[in-house]
Batch of 4 targets.
Target 1
Amino acid sequence: MIISLKDNLTWLQVRRYWELLHVLVSRNLKVRYRGSFLGVYWSLLNPLIMTGLYTAIFGATFASYYGNSIMNYVLAAFTGLVVINFFSACTSQALSSVVGNGSLLNKIRLPVSVFPLSMIAANVFQFAVGTFPLLAVMTFLNSKSLANVLALIFPFLALVLVCTGIGFLVSALYVFFRDLPYFYELVVFVIWLSSPIFYPAAIVPKQVKPFLNLNPLSPIIESLRQITLSGSPPDLALIWGALLSGVIILTLGWTCFHLWRHQFMDLL
Amino acid sequence: MEVIRLDNVSLWRRTQEEFSYDLKKTLLSVFEGKYRQPAKKLVLDKINLVVKKGEKIGIIGANGSGKSTLLKIISGILQPTTGSVRVRGQIAPLIELGAGFDAEISVIDNILLYGVLLGFSRAEMQQRIQSILEFAELQDYTFVPVKGLSSGMVARLGFAIATDIQPDILILDEVLSVGDESFKNKCKQRIDNFWDANATVLVVSHDLSFVQQSCVRGIWLDHGQLRFMGNANETVDCYLKSLNKL
């Protein structure tokens, strides 16, 4: 009897959490796309323009690293940009989500973690409708194999895990340190430059390379490029590497968030 | 049947002076060896309280005496540092209406959003939309973004959503009537319905005559301590006497 009551309670909590997530995500998306007729596809504009810019500037110089094909450079730059854009959008929106809803948290009892999570979920939705189809078509044209298209899920899943972990971490830190956005901007820039997005990883000096491997996005970009561009079947080792980095970061972020959240209310 | 029980509830919170906190300053103070643990203050001191079903309780006391904090503890927004809180039944908080609104999205979307935030399911809220719009007299504004409403209309909407249900426990923090005169009457009627409908009500108010008239029991908080608890009239008298002494 007691057990069934407990089960019932947790089920109710799960349902409430789900409902909250649902309304918050639809709120986020509605606010973002109200009155813009391109809607979700605005989010594609940024990586497309950036890819064009990089190709115009670096394309000819770096083409030799990409089998003397500018097209390969374009695709490599685009996949990298998609990942880094998703990362920076997710985490910087998650950063302010807890503090931004502070007055609400002071008035209604709500699970705090739903706010950073709703930001990530809104971006996942946007990615799934906007960028993902384009990547899938690219992959299919390159590899002529459905297995590669399906395997795209894994690096993307790893990316979502990394973003959720970092999102939890920064949203919690922001409660304590209100000047965090300035520092975080710098961090994003470092991650952005240290991931081989618009330059080939081969030009990085040997002494510096080990540091670049610390970048949590590197294994994800590598795995995504292998699946999308190489034309060979998905490399499982790369996929596992990406997922592992995702799980580690999510665990880290969630642990910090969980340990600190009892102190949030005094500062909101 | 008791619906709320507080046993020896104490709450320590970080003090207001600590509200300037940033990474730069914290790092500097660590390097200079001046870092100290944030100071904490006792906001509620060993509160014991049992509320039975259907009781109407007025909470009075000076500003900063912990009245709203006590309500937050009961609503589960704050966790007590020591002691235990037990609550049976659904709590409807009626604190500063409109806090959950998003000005960018339409009235109808806000009804769903606010309702779910307050703890109802989306399906439930969808059925209530009509009655809420009707009560708030905003049928013509269904698809207008909330930023297009006047502040009085927003308050009306907040009140209509928060009171469209019959909660087991109603918590009122200084908001009893909003909007123009005709709407105030509607509000009062609805609040009176709650009063009659055997709901448990907790009110924080500085309107002492209101507490005397509408509440059965009174609680007087002073600097986080429960100074007096008893009949509403006695509590108000006690409170006034202490004020006159000063």
Note: The longest strand of chain B covers residues 2-14.
Target 2
Amino acid sequence: MIPIIAFQERSLTGPVMKADEFDMGFSMKIRELVKKYDIKYNEKELVVDDATADAVYQAAVDLLVEVGIYHMDTERVIKLTREEVEQVAKEYRENPSKHTFGKGKDKVTIKYRTSTDKRPPTLYAGSWGVAQEDWYKPYIKSFVQEKSIKAMGITAGLAKLGDLKAKAGTLSEVTVGLWENEKVKEVLDEVGRPGLHLGLLSTLSSPGGIMTIVGGGFRDGHNTQIGVHIIPEMKISWSQFVLAQFCRVRGVQPWQSSMSMIGGLCRNAQDAAVGLTANLLGQLSYAQGQLCSLFTNHMDGKSATRPTHWAYSAAARASERNIKVCIGGCASGVLCKSPFTLIQAVNMATLFTASSMSYCWIAGNTGVEARYTGEVMDAIAGMERGQANELVNKMMDLQTKYAPEVKGNTCKFPEVYDLETVQPHKWYLDYLDKAKEELAACGVPY
Amino acid sequence: MGLLEDISKAVEELEKGTALSLVKKALDEGVNPPDIINSGIVPGLRGVGKKFEQEEYFLAELMMGGKVSQACIDLVQPYLPENDNANLGTVVIGAVEGDLHDIGYGLVATQLELNGFKVHKVGVNVPAMTFIDKAKELKADIIGLSAFLVTTIPNCYEVINYLTDMGIKDKYKVIIGGAETSQAKAKEMGADGWAPNAVEAVALCKKLMGI
């Protein structure tokens, strides 16, 4: 284990470099490593095999050791030795991750999973994006009233409270954060789940704002997480280190999330998988958390394509076999007047379940899709790789079939739910039923 | 193939050494310096942009294309007639205070450079006044503000509010971009434009410069 204070010295004495130069070095090295380890993308094999996962892991170790982590404040590169990186992975591997969140009857333990584990991923869900005051509570309630949802990843944030704009690092950020926290608590009390894990603070993004709410006791170790992640690609600032240190002092499980973008410094799925895994190892070295969410998308924002699926699976399985941390994924749907809304979320959740993820975060949809998606995860957990691949491929075709219906048909939560009863409208359920019919025809065990 | 076409090809293929020696050769042979830029380097840059759009090139190649072309232009610059340069406009661009995401704005900056704009990147987590000071120092035409988070969008408003309160808003065109931004938000805050991606950001800047 590397003491976090060691990162102080390295941040101040590492090689001096401009960000552009680091980016170029990162991009070229990742290509070289993908070639060296002969990592091949197969668009039909979206749940990747063991050998590919191991190659991705080895390439990621090399990448982290050879490129390092770029400190944006000091414009220096934080270097880690091969022995240090391998030791970090070994310590995790010998003690597979688990962590208990929540309180009382709302306690939930997230545990390391393998890809064929019959125990399904823990269902995370929660409101997402930007909400408005008048539908803030019903949006959250749509999720927490679903008993199969065991924790929330985050709740939607408010851009404005009345006329007050939430501005990072200022009084308004904290004011909005306090309001949101109070409303979330009201919803939890109303549905009788006061001990539920709430995940990340939503609108709050600055260290000062986060520390005010968490340090002030409005959130606690059992129900909150704080983002300490390396941002893409392999960049960090003092904020992440200070927040990681704060998590330890306050007994909060750090929110680690690893992200690589396809089409940017990473060309393709193979590069992104290696980038995701190197980023994960980098975070484990200083934050020492038990969970890490993976995120990958193309430059146009798409996050549920064949290349992103492959990258998610390769990075998750690289961790499954070589690190054994609890990996999570965000199965994001697009709220729209089309069966697509559920098809994409179920497709991603199926891939995540078959790729060893320990938790699956349903975001971008509503409570009802989260419930339906959770049912699928329960049913397919333990499925062997070949069968899972066949299923995911069929769902990918189905997703392609319905994708043209999304444009011009996206909607917001208040359109699809009755805000008084907090139940979905019948016309919306009809779209979901149609999606379930289509998914069942693909072989999804509904 | 002529010398100018060779320069174009070398730039497009990111062969810096070859491109530089071809530019030197062209200068030695008395080729009109503006032609070296307009018919050699710039078409090569367009080729880089085209390959990026076709997913043959990626962000690293775009960045490399910018570096190769800048090195070539630096060689030609001393031979250009006064007031004759390839600059379509000067852009100061960065991520506003509180925002650490650099890929999106970096891509916009590179695309603008490839299309003939002089771009100065001010980095991430940049205070409002730094954008303004840099724009004043460089006599910039455009200020580009990137905000990835809902809580950092108000910092785009802040730059515009300062410009307005300092009485210099009409000296600069302000554009915004980033995950949670939109045309509606740009209009609301008094920005001169918004673009959803790097390619459209180039079109927007050209439009704002009257090109």
Note: Chain A touches chain B at residues 19-20, 23-24, 27-28, 72, 130, 157, 159, 165-169, 172-173, 203-206, 231-233, 235, 237, 239, 261, 263-267, 299-301 (CB under 8 Å).
Target 3
Amino acid sequence: MSVVSLPAARSFSFWLMTYRRTWRGTVITSVVSPVMYLAAMGVGLGSLVKSGQGTGGFSYLQFVAPGLLAATAMQTSAGESTYPVLASFKWVRNYHAMAATPLTPADILVGHLLWIAARVAMASGIYLAVVAMFGALRTPLALLALPVCVLVGLAFATPIVAYAATREGDLGFTALMRFGIVPMFLFSGTFFSVSQLPVGIRPIAYLTPLWHGVGLARDLTTGQLESGGAWLVVGHVAYLLAWAVVGTFFALRYFRARLAV
Amino acid sequence: MSAQLPEPLIHARGLVKRFGDFVAVDGVDLDVAAGEAFGFLGPNGAGKSSTMRMIGCVSPPSGGTLRILGLDPRKDGPRIRGQLGVVPQLDTLDLELTVRENLLIYGRYFGLPRALIRERADELLEFVQLSDRAGDKVEPLSGGMKRRLTIARSLINDPRVLLLDEPTTGLDPQARHVVWDRLFRLKHRGVTLVLTTHYMDEAEQLCDRLVVMDKGRIAAEGSPRELIERYSSRDVVELRFALGENEAAAEKVADLGDRIEVLPDRVLLYADDGDACLDRVQTRGVTPLSSLVRRSTLEDVFLRLTGRTLVD
């Protein structure tokens, strides 16, 4: 059987082929990590937290699970968008191998972004299943949290891939994790509502893509809209899309600058 | 209408590549015909690799005309690259994948049907003598095996032109000869080869025609034999003297050859009859620590053209 394949699908298949060697480890991580977090935070710490206004009236497990879900999408995406990109330019040089074939820098970029989206979907899908086993999903609408996770993943992946494409070494990645990803993980509404933050700091949380992702995920797993209502949902989606579009624009620019010199 | 000449596979006029203020390629003209083995000979930094990358359609020219397979690289990059095979200077193999997987995935980049890729992969592994390593990871392979794998990979799309950038740099002599042997076979099959090298023996062995490049320009063009005839004598007498005595000794024997070159470690005397020349050196009472009569090589051509040695 021979099918004419889209060029981006061809560069995607590189990632699929290399993943065959490492999938076991990532699947185990994807299962064990949510079990631990949900047990410790949702069940353990949650036993000390009264459900009330701060948790939107839900149990703490129900409150924190969608936060962790969106945060996992972010973290998976950030991991897949840093070292693998730098390695593809500098160490494995697979981008350069691809650039010598009919694939264009755009094909190479899109293929990799599709792969990152697939990895985020895998990790988030497993997470969602584990959340379901903990009984923390209140509605079948929760299934829609999966595409939301992919959107969160792309909102992070595209600017981070763009950044990684400008790097010669991995020094910046540690700073990105320490001063970007970890603070977002802690303060973007994952573990507690942003309304608990000092008024002056809240706008910063609102600017993070993760806050928008957590908001959407929480709406979908609890089946109840936040106080902002439907327009806030639209705003969340638009904001995340904007990051993905602007990120793709810069990523493409830097890929072209580095692969066609 | 005039009679149709076969269009050259590669055609360049006034080709220029600039990186900021630095001019890497400074007005290169060349034509490569189908079936030719064409070489760029020159030291590091001569502009060989930059020219190759433009021909490979991964580097847009800064000026001049370039046509590959009758197409314009600025517009038809993917179409041209689909018909080229590329052996880059630095290996771009995936060390985590197996030997065979490296071929399979590369074939996918060209959008070839899987069955065809599998068939060709097996043939090519046979050709580069790596069939027995097909299922092994690439990581532990020797440098020579990796090069051969890269060559096999570059042939997966049955290319019309094979571009080789420094194909044997970094290999030990035995591994180089194996690579040369495979390239020689490809040449006999009619594959058009374009290669860069700073090894004169590689250029002499493989190239029907070559250009000597220096500082971004073509200094001379011709077959290895033509270049040697045009720019050097038949023989060369190499004389080594004690430290610091080269200049003084050279003055005494300068008139005995057609030309003389004083290098830091030896004096080269160019003459058509090297043995007779060396006799005359000795009758003059000049006694070098050691002496050697040899045929002229492309190294001598390069020295004549640029005043520098190829590998320093």
Note: The longest strand of chain B covers residues 22-32.
Target 4
Amino acid sequence: MVGTKKVNSNKITLPEVENLGRGHLACAGCGAAIAMRLTLKALGERVIMVFPASCWSIIPGFWPYSSFRINAIHAGFVTGGATASGVRAALDVKGDDDTLVAVWGGDGGTFDIGLQALSGAAERNEDFLYICNDNEGYMNTGTQRSSATPLMAWTTTTPVSQPKENPKKDMMGIMADHQIPYAATATIAYPEDLIQKMEKAKRIRGTRFIHLLSPCPPGWRIPSEISVKISRLAVRSRVFPLYEIENGRRYTLQEERRIVPVKEYLKLQGRFSHLSESQIEEIQKRVDEAWERLKRRARC
Amino acid sequence: MKKVITGNQAVAYGVILSRVEVVSAYPITPQTTIVEELSELIANGRLHTRFLKVESEHSAMAALIGASTGGVRCFTATSSHGLAYMHEMLHWASGARLPIVMVNVNRAIGPPWNIWSDQSDSLSQRDTGWIQLYCENNQEVLDTILQAYRIAETVRLPVMVILDAFVLSHTSEPVEIPSMEEVEAFLPPYCPPYPLEPQEPKSYSVITTPEYFFEFRYKIQKAMEEVPEVCQKVEDEFYSRFKRRYGAVEKYGDEQAEVLLLTSGTVTSTSRIVIKKWREEGVNIAGLKIKRFRPFPAKEIGEAIKGTKKLAVIDRNLSAGVGGIFAQELKAALYSQEERPAIFGFVSGLGGRDITPELLEEAIQYTLGHSQPKEEILWLGLKR
Amino acid sequence: MSKQFTFKGASEMPEIPISLGFMDWNKTGAWRAQRPYYLDKTPPCSAYCPVGNDIVSFIQKILEEDMDGAWRVLREENPFPGVCGRVCFHPCESRCNRSFLDEPIAIHALERFVADFSEDQGQKVKREVEEGKERVAIIGSGPAGLSCAYHLARLHYPVTVFESFSLPGGMLRMGIPSYRLPREVLEREIALIESMGVNIRTGITLGQNLTWQDLKDYSAIFIATGAHLGRPLGIPGEKRRGVFQGLEFLKKVNSGKKIELGEKVGIIGGGNTAIDVARSVIRLGKKAILLYRRSKEEMPAFEEEVSEALEEGVKIRYLVNPIRIHSKDGLKRLECLRMKLGEKDETGRRKPIPIPNSNFFIEVDSLIIAAGEEIEFSYFPKGMERKGGILLTQRDGSAGVKGVFAGGDLTSTQRTVAHAIGSGKKAALAMDCYFKEKDSEEVFRRTLIGEGPPISIFRYLHPDERRMDPHLVRFEELNLDYFEPAPRQKESKLPPKVRIKDFKEITSTLPSSLAIEEAGRCFSCGTCNGCETCYVFCPDASILKREGIFLREIDYDFCKGCGICFTECPRGAITLKEEAR
């Protein structure tokens, strides 16, 4: 476990390679930058990553530069699943079954505008690793709501007078129902878990989906220094539980021992600062119900 | 080997002979038999081709962009709504300078639903940076596909090969199908200029500021400007191997004609008959088939129309607010030329309305009878 | 590092916007509004350790399974880890931040483990003294004297220690019974000091067979004669037969001499000496009843000692004060008064007030008085003053006569082994400054741990290493997300019935696996231990791994100042401050 220094513990040694590079344009404290850095450590050198429009169209830098040390293909917003299918087809035709094709899409490009292409590709069980970097809104364009924005959150299109009325879309459920071989949630505060899941997903064939929660300091209205802490609280408050789904049926729930009430998670974020006590209770109720549902699925 | 095949089947043969490696398509009438035919040919082991049965046309083009970036030769086909749905990705394909070849079966765009022949779909994509080549018969369809890959891979721009709905797509004609070896000699394997290499990682389509974007667009225009010469060279070689050529434009009839009838697509076949008939009746008339629409063959047309006083343009399309698109482009092309004949822009045949020989005769009649068109848009065969 | 591209025009550009170089030229460090930096801060354990041990460092070495390294860390400051691990009152543990999560680290057990683990310690210590340097005489071979000798020897000064008893060790040998501190442990650690070249001469007493004149050849003298005289109660009957002083009694027991004791032995006092006496009495097969004039809460003896004493059968009566000793046929009748507690006195404890007319009698066969220790001052020359029961000294230990320094129980009312060891070390440092004409005040300031008073001689000898900000790390500054409650390891203890059979050691050293488990509970407050948390979470890969003293380095060219490293550091070893612009 990161933070302790036990020589005999099963600590994962992070590969030294830095394929995200430095000098990139991510905001200070960007959760996605941490996620990307860790992901690229896990995925290694032989990867081609497709980037539908998101913050990551900008973060690596402007032409003629890119901070990436991997092959990256920037693609249309809609097209994550489709472009990756094409890249995979080309590699298959050329006889290359070593190179991993991955997609790094935002929540917009996955839950909303990119859903069709992803669904189509998942139904065909296209052989790629789809990573949804979920910062719960259209952050690149200035924090508008997406269907990944949580219930009652503030965004520029769900102002405080009328915060988001609908709960977050259950993307994992949607992907599970496509019966893809592997889907999992992960987040930056659990780096060994994230890397293990990436490595596991890498070895599986077919459509793999990883739902990453990446806190966004400007979008969530949090100070940059607590990005990792917030991500940890998201798991510990069960707002974002860590689990895996294999073949759409087998759920493996990772139980966090130290649970906190959602209030601990919400109170640190400016985008929830308008919530009343009763609204927080409502959110707690929903989180508890969702957790029970998840447990039931894990038991079957 | 000669076979009697439909236009769509000719497309399928053209794709197979070109040793396309990735096909990605979504069905839409009247393109469906292309993909059906391709599926069979691929399944029969004719080719080691991956066929992605994507869930939309937008995804079809996106998948090809991915595959082409991956360094393989690829293909798709669509029509009308499907093409319109792909619009965003058409820009992307040309902006990324990918030599993708797509067949578009000309069909009207609704509402109301209409599945029949109409050029509005392909022409409304004329600003997307794709080369557009129109075909008159099934042989030309097959030949154009073979040439299209050569052209695309030389100038690195995508090419749209266009044929009329049902009139060509579902109509059988005798077609000379070359052998795989013959085509191999003409069309070598695709060699991508910026291949994906794990040891030399690169980012493709990196966001570009005003500082450099302008120059990338300039390069696309420059590539377009190379097309006439490249087309010529490719045609010359094609001719030397297969003894068939088409040209960017084709003039038939009297050398010094009073009236020139400009057509594209299958209308040209009808036009040939009408022109022949009127010439036999002593009228000084000729026809001009326009094969290449993008880049617009201003130079070739300029030479072809020397001495002609009147041009009658048959547009099987409509850009609401301005009229027929061929006519509009023609006017723009001829504006800077010394000789500027009168242009009679006829709009006809939208949504598959038959353009009969009688209609063409009506158009010629009108043109002969007027020094200038009375209206900007001359509606041919319209029931007022 | 990629160069920056400039293109004159389209003709120099590639056809497509494909990347040509990396972003390493873009020094995002310019974005910073706040700057993180590594600065080890002072862990509370070290700040309250009178010896000045670098506790966090030695514990981290245990975690790395470098027991030898751990031993060396301890020996930078303390020649007696085996002793302290057994007898120290471990103020470090009372201040340990871990107690706010579950229980404090068993630091004493770890110190003992390290001292006992390493074999062939004699091989690891070599002769250090250099003839030709200033010679120092040390009077008294207790913890203060030997600590001073040890540190002076490390500084290469030839040292002679004069001990009046026949064996070295002072209170460690005389005062502390061997069931708490086995002789072989003490002798092992004293032998190591001698192997450095320290000369210990026993049977020599200053003021008797050693005079001040004899010491003229020494460039400096350190006096650490301790407080080895028992304080009399000043009540009638005290001088009768069968009434002993506690320290005398212990000295006899610890030297293996026979003592005549009756069946029921009364012990007067409430400090560690009284408890040691009582438990020794039990082990000699006699009954022990301890009389203390205040209540249990005010007893100065260590709590654990008192509990063990009670387990072993010592009876304690509180709020009892003897006022007269009657004696008849060897039997002692103590006339006592009951006490009640009044207001707090200057030591913070409530004053005992006699209840008039509450006289009663307790009968015992022997009586041992252990009600305090006093210093021997008959040999003091002119210039050395005493006040309040101690020899007065300056902060650097100088005792009023040029070249004479003093320390230990002689000069302080804080009479613990740890304080004595610390004062010996401080005096060695002061003498080094004295010889080199350095300002010792300035040196002490530089080597203080936290705000002091403990000092670190390691920092004196290696000024560039182990830099520590004096700020004491508070529990709130740690990131508890990284720590889960875990039980504290306990050394196993023999059951009372077994213990009282002899004077063998009653606890045993932790085995390796448990020591490592316990070491794993240490937060490493304020001290970077290379856990890599900062490295893992930096979004800009601006924390570089290094070998050597500084395990991590921040690349300020790229650090955007997000502060995640500061928040996540489990031990608060990173500081965040505003970026100066």
Note: The radius of gyration of chain A is 18 Å.
